[in-house]
Amino acid sequence: MTEEAALSAYVAGTISFSAFRNAVVDSTTFVFQPGGTVHIASRRPLPRVQIGPEDVQRALTRYQNGEVTLEELATWGLVLHNLDAFEIQGVSESTEEEMWDVIGQLSIASVNEAFDTPRVSILLQRLHGMTRG
Q: Which one, of 106, 17, 11, lies nearest residue 63 by Cα?
């Protein structure tokens, strides 16, 4: 699997973190730290992959439906938030900032005691507004 295919598949939720990590191991460093945090950095430029509100909505919905764990959702957010391969396209600058805020919240979801069912609903409502406007 190419790096670009792995990046796109990971955003879409069609491959696991383990499969993603194996596909980008030559260009990306993953340092697992105590407490479940992961430091991620690219060693060389990765292909650019576009993301949109619908990608984040899909991830949150998969969590809400029990398809992924909180840790998997947080890792997904952490990867998107920390690798410069991802770019938000087709939205206003303020919507882009708001999307990065939501992704940032996902990246710390597993250590944020306030990340619960009502919080997921609020984030989904924010994202829904981004896709309409």
A: 106
Q: Which of 81, 97, 106, 95 lies closest to 131 in space, CA to CA?
A: 95
What's the distance, CA 59 to chain centroid? Answer: 8
From CA 107, how far away is CA 117, in angstroms rounded?
Answer: 16
Report pLDDT digits (tens) over 81-127.
989 899 998 788 888 999 999 999 998 888 877 788 888 989 999 88
Count of the separate structural domains present in the chain? 1
Host domain of residue 11: 3-132
> In the predicted model, what is the mean pLDDT of residues 43-63?
94
pTM to 2 decimal places: 0.88
CB 63 within 8 A of CB 120: yes
**Longest distance between any two alpha carbons in the chain, whole Å:** 41
